[in-house]
């Protein structure tokens, strides 16, 4: 943004004619910067999808489910997986359409509108993924509790516990684990998309000054 700062200083100091020229140059720079940011959002989301796909191939969940003899759960997991794929592909499509719109617009107001729309799409994408972390974690804990033979001792303790103290401890422990997972994933997404969203936010603020 150093180039933009130099233009802004010159714009404030020089004549009205020069002001009009530099205003157009600043818009072009902000337009290019916004388009680049959205392009990287699109690229990162595609790479992220490829990474999760690779991890699913490496860590075969079907084999783990068969080992626990929880085959009746496979249909529900497959449906959830297909829904998740469809939603993520829809978000990637939205990132693509946002990139095309921002790259081709010639209007300051439209560019500002598209920047806000892109930011909202990314935020919804992050919230969706965090929600899926919660759903997947809860489902994994329930399946492990119901089908894993390694948890037989805990089940016996729960059955013998009249005051439900064991259940409370388990719920607290699982809640803590889930919170840790959520924080890790939130930091992951903040690292991936936070910088690009800040750039878009700064561009929006600069465009708003031009549009006044």
Describe what this molecule looks like in 3D:
The protein is mainly alpha-helical and 212 residues long. The protein has one domain. Helix content is 89%, strand content 0%. The protein is built from seven helices and no strands. Helix 2 (16-58) packs antiparallel against helix 7 (165-211). The protein is elongated and about 75 Å long.
Please supply descriptive tags for the structure shown above.
single chain, 212 residues, mainly alpha, 89% helix, elongated
Low-confidence stretches: none
Q: What is the C-alpha radius of gyration, as a whole number of Å? A: 25 Å
Name the helicity range.
Answer: over 70%
Strand-residue fraction?
under 5%
Oligomer: single chain
Could you give the topology of this structure?
Layout: H1 2-13, H2 16-58, H3 61-67, H4 74-104, H5 108-147, H6 152-160, H7 165-211
Helix pairs in contact: 1-2, 2-4, 2-5, 2-7, 4-5, 5-7
Transmembrane segments: 38-59, 79-96, 125-147, 167-189
Keywords: Membrane, Transmembrane, Transmembrane helix
Describe the structure concisely for a colleague.
The chain has 212 residues and is an all-alpha fold.
């Amino acid at each position: 943004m150093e180039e933009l700062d130099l233009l802004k200083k010159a714009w404030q100091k020089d004549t009205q004619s020069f002001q009009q020229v530099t205003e157009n140059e600043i818009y072009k720079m902000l337009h290019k910067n916004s388009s680049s940011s959205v392009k990287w959002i699109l690229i990162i989301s595609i790479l992220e999808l490829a990474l999760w796909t690779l991890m699913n191939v490496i860590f075969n969940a079907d084999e783990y489910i068969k080992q626990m003899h929880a085959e009746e759960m496979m249909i529900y997991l497959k449906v959830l997986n297909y829904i998740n794929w469809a939603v993520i592909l829809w978000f990637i499509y939205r990132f693509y359409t946002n990139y095309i719109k921002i790259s081709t617009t010639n209007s300051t107001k439209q560019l500002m509108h598209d920047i806000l729309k892109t930011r909202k799409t990314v935020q919804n994408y992050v919230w969706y993924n965090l929600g899926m972390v919660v759903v997947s974690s809860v489902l994994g804990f329930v399946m492990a509790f119901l089908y894993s033979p390694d948890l037989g001792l805990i089940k016996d303790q729960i059955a013998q516990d009249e005051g439900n103290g064991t259940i409370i401890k388990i719920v607290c422990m699982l809640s803590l684990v889930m919170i840790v997972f959520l924080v890790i994933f939130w930091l992951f997404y903040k690292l991936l998309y936070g910088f690009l969203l800040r750039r878009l936010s700064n561009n929006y603020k600069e465009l708003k000054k031009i549009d006044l």
